[in-house]
Specification:
globular; alpha+beta
């Protein structure tokens, strides 16, 4: 398996994060290098390759956290998006969702995770 930023860095504590919401199996935190003005990552605390391999009960928990985060962003900023990628588009091969608001503002997208 290739390097897993979430397991190797976030869950180990090597990369500190600002938590937004946490359940027993899901963590939502402010992206360490945001691409949008509001950029929250929602990720399972166990390794899951992608949306295609996640078990239904964990998917329900992930979506519940994403929904709660998106609701807050919508209330505070007037809009929210929930995004994930598959295959070649998935930079980190650990399922994660981006809950975001605002126009893109980074000059380089090479720092996305």
């Amino acid at each position: 398996m290739a390097s897993d930023f979430y397991c190797d860095e976030v869950f180990s504590g090597k990369t500190p994060v600002e938590k937004v919401l946490e359940t027993g199996r899901v963590l939502a935190y402010h992206h360490t290098r945001p691409y949008w003005p509001v950029h929250i990552v929602v990720v399972p605390k166990e390794h899951v390759d992608s949306l295609l391999t996640v078990e239904n009960d964990l998917l329900v928990e992930l979506m519940g956290v994403a929904k709660e985060v998106a609701t807050t962003i919508l209330e505070e900023h007037g809009a929210a998006r929930v995004l994930t990628n598959l295959g070649e588009y998935q930079d980190s091969k650990h399922l994660h969702f981006h809950v975001v608001s605002g126009s893109e503002f980074r000059v380089s997208d090479s720092s996305r995770s």
